[in-house]
Amino acid sequence: MIEVIDAERCTACDICVSVCPTNVFDKTDGIPIIARQGDCQTCFLCELYCPEDALFVSPFADAPQAVDVAALKEATLLGSYRRAVGWVEESRHLRAADRSYRLFGH
Amino acid sequence: MTNLPGRAEKLSSSAGSVVFDADVLVLGGGPAGTWAAISAAEHGARVVLADKGFCGTSGATAAAGTGVWYVDPAPERREAAMASREKLGGHLQDRRWMARVLDRTYAQSNQLADWGYPYPADDDGRPQRNSLQGPEYMRLMRKRTKQAGVTILDHSPALELLVDGNGVVAGAAGLRRQKGDRWAVNAKAVVIATGGCAFLSKTLGSNVLTGDGYLLAAEAGAEFTSMEFSNAYAISPAFGSVTKTLFYSWASFTDEQGSVIPGASSKGGRSVIARALGKGPVYAQLDQADAETQRHMRVSQPNFFLPFDRTGIDPFTQRFPVTLRLEGTVRGTGGLRIIDDSCATTVPGLYAAGDAATRELICGGFTGGGSHNAAWAMSSGYWAGHGAAEFARQLGTTVGREAFRRGTVGLRSSNGRALQGGALVRSVQDEVFPYELNYFREAGRLGGSLGRLDALWTDASNADVPDEQELLRGREAAAMLATARWMYRSALARQESRGMHRRDDYPEQDDRHLHLVTSGGLDDVWTSARPLASAQYSEAAE
C-alpha cells in the first residue's frame, strides 16, 4: 500500500491525486495526503506517474508497513519502478526492452 | 470549455450536477473502453467516456503487462492459433469469432505501432507485437482518446442506466468523486466496458473491477452467459498484489518443511496448489529460470520484482510464500451476452466490450492468460464503438425523449436501515474467495452459498440509500453480490467439469452439456441452456 509522500520532494503538483485509480489521495492547501490508504490496491502506478520520485508504495498489499524514508533514499528505492520501465530520460531505451516474446510458450 | 465540432456538449452545470449530451457514452476507460470511444468518434459520434478511476491507470491492463493474441496472417499460423485452445476451452468457442478477432487484433496492434507504441524488435530486427506494457499502452490510449475528441470524465463511476419509454438505453448517471457532485449523460447508445469482477481481491490492478457494469446492465434487462467460468485464481506472493502467473512456470512449489508438492504447477497444477493452501503455507522459488531467462523477466515485467526487491528476497534463489488471489470473471470468460457482430447486448442501444462482455466466443470456458482478453478488448471495443455510433446515427433526433433511471439496490429510499457496503463486501467475499466453494464446486456447497447470497440480496434490496460517501461502495457491493449469484446459479446448472469450471460431484466433461448457459435476473436469478452456434448451423443445414 502507499506509505510515503516525501514532503522534501513533493511539489504539490497533485498528479497522484488525479492518476490514482482508486482515489486514495486528497488535495490540500499544501501537499496531498493519503486519505484512504485502505483503498490502495498496490498497483504502483502513482509512483510511476510521480515526476519527483516522492512516493513509495510498500509491496505489502494487505497491511500497512512502517517505512524509513531516509533508508529508502539511501537505497535509491524512491523512483526505482519509474527507472525500471524507462519513464525517465536516462533509461528511455527500456521502454522498448520487452522480451516477453522470448518467454511465451514455456 | 470550448465545444469543438463533434464534441459532446455540456448542457448545464448547476450546483450539484453536470449534464452532457452525446451520441455515444462509454462506461470504462481501460483498453476496451478507450478503443470503443476512439472507434465511435472515428465513425462520427460525439462521445463521452466516464471512468470510475482515471482513464489511463484504471483496470487490469494498466498496472500489468499483457500478452496479445497477435498472430501472423499466414493461414497455417492462424489455424494453429485457433486449434491450440479449443480443448482447453471445452470446445465452446466459435471459429468464426476467433478468426475475426485475430484479424481485428492484427489491425489494431499495427495501428498502435503507427501511433508510436514502442514495440520491441528481435535480434533480427523484426518487430514483436504479441505483448504490451500496461502503463505505456494505456498512457498512449488516453492520449489517442483525447485526440479523437472524446470528453473524458475521470473519477466518475456510473451508478445507473437511463432508459426511455420504449426500453431503449438513453444514457447513464453517476458520481464525480473528486468534485463531490453528480453527472448525467444523455446518449443515444451506451457501451459497457467496465471490466469483469474480481471481488476486491487485490489481484493486480483489479480493485476497480467490481462488476458495476453488470449490475446496471442487468437493471436494464441485459442477459449474461458463461458465468460459471468465473473461478480463475492467480498466483502472487502471499503478502503482495503482483500476479504474473506466467513467470511461475519456472517455479518449484514446496510445503512448510521444504518438500516439493507433487503435481503443483502454475499450468495444469494450480488446483494442487489450491488444495495444498487449504492445509498450510505454500512456497515458490523460480529456480528453473536460467540467467538469460532471468534477464528477460526483469525487462519484460519490472513490477513483478517490486515485491521482492523491496523485501530483500531473491525469488530465483530463495523460497517465498505464495497465495492464490481470485480473478473472478476478469480472467474467467463469463459476462454480458452479445447477440451480433457489433457486440450489441439484448437491450436496445446497449453494447458490451472487453471483460464486461463474455469471452466465450474465442475462449470457451478457459482463459489462461491476458493474451486472448487483450485481443478481445481491442476487437470488441472497436466493434462496439462502431455499433453504438451506427445505432445512434439511425436513431436520429431524441429531443424531448423522456429518460427513466433504472437503478435498484442502494438507489431507492426505504424505511429500512441504510445499505452497509463495507459489511456486504466482506459477506460476498466469504462466499466467493474460499477454494472449497468456488475453485472446487459441489451442489450442496453451491446451494448453501446461494441460500446465503439470496438472503443478502433480499436485505440489500430492502435497505435505504446510504450517504454520499458510502454510495459507491454500496453499489460495488451490490454488483459483487449480483455477480456471485449469476456465477453460482450457472455453476449449479452445469452438472459437469469443463474449462475452468470444476465440479467435485461431476468430475468429468460430459458432452450432454456441450452448450452455453445463459443467466440473468436480479430478485429472481434464472439460467437456461443455449446451443452452440456451430450446432445451430448444422441444425439449419439439415
TrEMBL record, chain A:
Keyword RNA-binding among record annotations: no
Species lineage: Bacteria, Pseudomonadati, Pseudomonadota, Alphaproteobacteria, Hyphomicrobiales
Protein name: 4Fe-4S ferredoxin
Leader sequence residues: none
Signal as UniProt keyword: no
Keyword vocabulary terms for this entry: 4Fe-4S, Iron, Iron-sulfur, Metal-binding
UniProt GO molecular function: 4 iron, 4 sulfur cluster binding; metal ion binding
4Fe-4S ferredoxin-type domain sequence ranges: 1-30, 31-60
Family annotation (SUPFAM superfamilies): 4Fe-4S ferredoxins (SSF54862)
Domain of life: Bacteria
